[in-house]
Amino acid sequence: MRRVGLPYSKILAFTLIELLVVVAVIAILSAIAVVNFALAADRARQVQCAARLKVIGSALYAYHIDYNAFPLADGVAGNRPTPFRTEFGNGPAGNGFWNGISLLLVECGYIQDRSVLYCPALEKRYAARRDNLRYAYNCSTTDAGGYAGSENNLESDSGDVWLVRCLYLHPTTNGADRRKPVNFPHGLDRTMENVLFSNYRVELRPGGETLR
To answer: Structural domain boundaries of the chain?
Structure first.
């Protein structure tokens, strides 16, 4: 700090360089705070997503106990269950190109809040596409009404069969039919997704990873 001399008085003042240093420090601290806040918010949505998958897992197994089978996947976006139906580009998951977790879980009372069926990070980031971003459901299992003899038979395969996950399809795939692709919801570089496995565990895994 430099003294600026005036007749009969003494005034203390900051130099221009000192002011610029202070402004730069404040800007750096603000940027760090914003980044940390964004990371904390992303982490919170990731944890919330895992919690929702746990709720879905409990609902699926409760349904299985009651009906001796998992519910059929929904193949068309909308507010009603759509088993045995598909509509290319308008599916309930994978940006419209994958089958979604069944709304039967809501209609039958196994899940009370329909928002549980959506990854909170995708729901926030792509609000306009919500109808096509329900959790992806592995309906290739015979127990979910999929292909008879499929290798993904939940009753006999290991616990590494994926059951429900955030998006599943890679952005290069879910942008089919000239639709703008959707990125995976989690991780600093948006390359991760939460996966619910058939043994009820939830893990953060690379998006689109092949898991049986």
So the answer is: 14-206
* Phi-psi group of 8: left, alpha or beta (phi > 0 → left; psi -120 to 50 → alpha; rest → beta): left
H or E element at residue 164 = strand 162-165
Q: What is the pTM of this model?
A: 0.79
123 CB-near residues (< 8 Å, 6+ apart):
115, 130, 133
Compute the distance between CA of residue 200 and CA of residue 211 in angstroms, rounded to an integer: 15
- Over residues 184-203, the pLDDT tens digits come to 999 988 999 999 998 889 99
Provide the 10 A C-beta neighbour count for residue 187: 15
Cα separation, 158 vs 68, in Å, equals 19
Contact of 78 with 134, CB cutoff 8 Å: no
**To 5 degrees, how large is the angle CA 194–CA 197–CA 198?**
155
Which tokens is 67 given? 């009906």
**How confident is the model over 101-160, as pLDDT tens digits?**
999 999 999 999 999 999 999 999 999 999 999 999 987 665 655 554 445 555 555 557
Using CA atoms, how far residue 192 sits from 71, 137, 169, 185, 206, in Å, is: 26, 17, 12, 6, 4
Token digits of residue 117: 């069926």
